[in-house]
Design a protein that fits this description.
By secondary structure, this protein is α+β, with helices and mostly antiparallel strands. The chain is built from 15 helices and 22 strands. The protein has 4 domains: 93 residues, Rossmann fold (3-Layer(aba) Sandwich), CATH 3.40.50.20; 57 residues, Dna Ligase, domain 1 (2-Layer Sandwich), CATH 3.30.1490; 128 residues, 2-Layer Sandwich (D-amino Acid Aminotransferase, Chain A, domain 1), CATH 3.30.470.20; 105 residues, Alpha-Beta Complex (Glycinamide Ribonucleotide Synthetase, Chain A, domain 4), CATH 3.90.600. The protein is 33% helix and 26% strand. The protein has a 5-stranded parallel beta sheet with strand order 3-2-1-4-5, sandwiched between helices. A 5-stranded antiparallel beta sheet has the order 12-15-18-22-19. Helix 1 packs parallel to helix 11. The protein is globular and about 60 Å long. It binds adenosine monophosphate and glycine. Glycine binds next to loops.
Length: 435
């Protein structure tokens, strides 16, 4: 079959690379893609938001399956547009995508499914939110804009004063626009974060290995939030036993609640979790693969991704065999442009990609790259996701950074501590001894 992947980031490169390995797949197209997907698949110069052109391309090129990367397209109804034309597409429809595009929808769904999450209240006007904050104890609290706000709509507040300021920014000054028409105010949770993703056809779920990303820009989880500066899988904070618990108490009830509420969910259910002393709690749901979590997950997945996604689209995931994973951990280090996540310059030629590719068990996934005059140049904030497998997580980290060292352009930088949390946890527990 022919497959189309929509998007242009590291996640889409990892998906295209993995799909291309399937014996079921003839051609993999990526729209619009990047310099890396041009190498491992075939780029199609159609903007990801141009649904009509994408549909035309799919019909004219015998594409049997379309896989959507970014959430904004799902929230804008790309799946509904394709299904109207009877085209096979992997991802939730617009209504189901509200699990990510509306925090209010998500929290109410979690409540209705009895899924563990932070205690919360919903407000549709700033005055009642203020009153609520003034009337309750002055404790750390989290204020969230309801809608999509490019990952910035969540404000973690140390005290009431900060929370009142957050309400002002979101609901009065509307710094995130209409995303701030409603607010969620919720209890602050403590613990370590982890991501557990599952593929579902709306009835059956296939849980992937746990992963963890690094959202803050700088070492030691400091600095501004980013799309993710690195990721690794597995995440030792999620034990096998806990993963089963999450499947049974988080993922399954969520899929049931979606079905019961009349919007069955087909696609990737990505639970952003806080592993608290009282157990895992859902912080948020995303409705697509994580970026960069997808990169280490695809490095480790041995099963045929095309077969899984194809089955999910047809509602026959119950007939898929259990997933096979490379037992070795994978670490992805995001290499970024100077200035990211703020402003940055583009167009610098990237050197050393071939040397990096020679390092064993390394794959350099491209994110913000393009080809100019036959040369790979930077074209985004997150430029590359250098991903490596290793016999243990420390070794995977070492290999990834060895590959990062080969690569250069002016202003290139990355976090130096990707996966350290996992390495420290394993060292403390002694599990890494002799390995
Ligand atoms: P969200 O988009 O809801 O996942 O929020 C983005 C980030 O804000 C999360 O990855 C957490 O680091 C933080 N966060 C969100 N909700 C909470 C909460 N209830 N307690 C503590 N941190 C939170
Ligand atoms: N890595 C976080 C995300 O994909 O939302």
């Amino acid at each position: 079959m022919n497959v189309l992947v929509i998007g242009s980031g590291g996640r889409e490169h990892a998906l295209a690379w993995k799909l291309k390995q399937s014996s079921l797949v003839d051609r993999v197209f990526v729209a619009p893609g990047n310099a890396g997907t041009a190498e491992d698949a075939e780029n199609v110069p159609i903007p990801e938001t141009d649904f009509a052109q994408l549909i035309k391309f799919v019909k004219e090129n015998g594409v049997d399956l379309t896989v959507v990367g970014p959430e904004a397209l799902l929230a804008a109804g790309i799946v509904d547009a394709f299904r109207k034309e009877k085209l096979r597409i992997f991802g939730p429809n617009r209504e189901a995508a509200q699990l990510e595009s509306s925090k209010v929808f998500c929290k109410q769904l979690l409540r209705s499914g009895n899924v563990p999450t932070a205690e919360f209240q919903v407000f549709s006007d700033p005055e009642s939110a203020r009153r609520y904050l003034v009337d309750r104890e002055d404790v750390p609290i989290v204020v969230k804009a309801d809608g999509l706000a490019a990952g910035k709509g969540v404000i973690v507040c140390k005290n009431r004063e900060e929370a009142l300021e957050a309400v002002e920014r979101i609901a009065v000054r509307k710094v995130f626009g209409a995303a701030g028409n409603r607010l969620v105010i919720e209890e602050m949770l403590h613990g370590e974060e982890a991501s557990v993703l599952a593929i579902t056809d709306g009835k059956t779920i296939v849980t992937l290995q746990p992963a963890q990303d690094h959202k803050p820009a700088y070492d030691g989880d400091t600095g501004p939030n980013t799309g993710g500066m690195g990721a690794y899988s597995p995440a030792p904070v999620v034990t096998d036993e806990m993963l089963h618990w999450i499947e049974a108490n988080v993922l399954v009830p969520t899929v049931h609640a979606m079905k019961k509420n009349g919007c069955p969910f087909q696609g990737v259910l990505y639970a952003g979790l806080m592993i608290t002393p009282l157990g895992p709690r859902v912080l948020e749901y995303n409705v697509r693969f994580g970026d960069p979590e997808c990169q280490p997950l695809m490095m480790r997945l041995k099963s045929d991704l095309a077969a899984i996604l194809d089955a999910a689209v047809d509602g026959r995931l119950d007939r898929i065999e259990s997933l096979e994973w490379d037992p070795r951990p994978a670490v992805c280090v995001v290499v970024a442009s100077e200035g990211y996540p703020g402003e940055y310059k583009k167009g610098f030629p990237i050197h050393g990609l071939e040397e990096a590719a020679k390092i064993p068990d390394v794959k350099v996934f491209h994110a913000g790259t393009t080809i100019r005059d036959g040369q790979v140049v930077t074209s985004g904030g997150r430029v590359l996701g250098v991903t490596a497998l290793g016999d243990n997580i420390a070794r995977a980290k070492y290999q990834a950074y060895a590959a990062v060292k080969c690569i250069s352009w002016p202003g290139k930088w990355c976090r130096k501590d990707i996966a350290d949390k996992a390495i420290n946890r394993l060292t403390q527990s002694g599990a890494n001894r002799n390995s």
